[in-house]
Amino acid sequence: MRSIHQITGADAPQFLQGLITNDVLKAAQGPVYAAILTPQGKYLADFFVFEHEGTLHLDVDAGIAPSLIQRLSMYRLRSDVQISETALQVARGTGPVPEGAHPDPRHPALGWRLYGAEGGDDGTEWDSIRVAHCIPETGIELTPDTFILEAGFDRLNGVDFRKGCYVGQEVTARMKHKTELRKGLATVGVSGGAPVGTPITSGDKTVGTLFTQANGKAIAHLRFDRATGPLEAAGAHVTYPA
Hints:
Layout: E1 2-8, H1 12-17, E2 32-37, E3 43-52, E4 55-61, H2 65-76, E5 82-85, E6 89-93, E7 102-103, E8 112-116, E9 120-121, H3 126-133, H4 169-177, E10 183-191, E11 198-202, E12 205-214, E13 217-223, E14 231-233, E15 236-239
Parallel strand pairs: 6-9
Antiparallel strand pairs: 1-4, 1-5, 2-3, 3-4, 6-8, 7-8, 10-13, 10-15, 11-12, 12-13, 14-15
């Protein structure tokens, strides 16, 4: 389920711009995918920012909405910003695009999102799409231990490296420009099944974690330099590259 909150007040755009990983100004053209991070650059929440009737809104997983709103309220201080839940819902799908819908900004395969009085989806097998394109999900692949570049946020249009400062920006920029990622999410082949969160091993060494699985593939978090040779996950055989 999703929770939709509006951000009002004279300082709302500037307030969000200084906190989140993407450029708030892009929301005038359609939903923007973004995250808020800890000062150490680790994931706290991901969400969509969009405009509705001239007001900025956040579309966030309902399970993490309370902690996100609490975090935003902590940063509000004396700013002219008000945050309130709305009755808006989100509909999404990959079939014919309804009037007023916008493309999901993360990947063309994720279809469209439409904000209004009714929610739901058109029966799309979302996990199959996510696994095929290595798209992480809130609370599954995206956890408090996540660095967003390891989760592919740059590939998913979730971070703008030219927008200026935001919380966690320094760590994120350093990972982008000064280091080669040694670990991160990848699509792997999987024969058999294993619960989400199962360690992936190579011999007696743990080299990653298995997450969402569909159609003989899975999203995994891997230590790339160690994910060699036969890989196992609680009896399931894992292959990388897929």
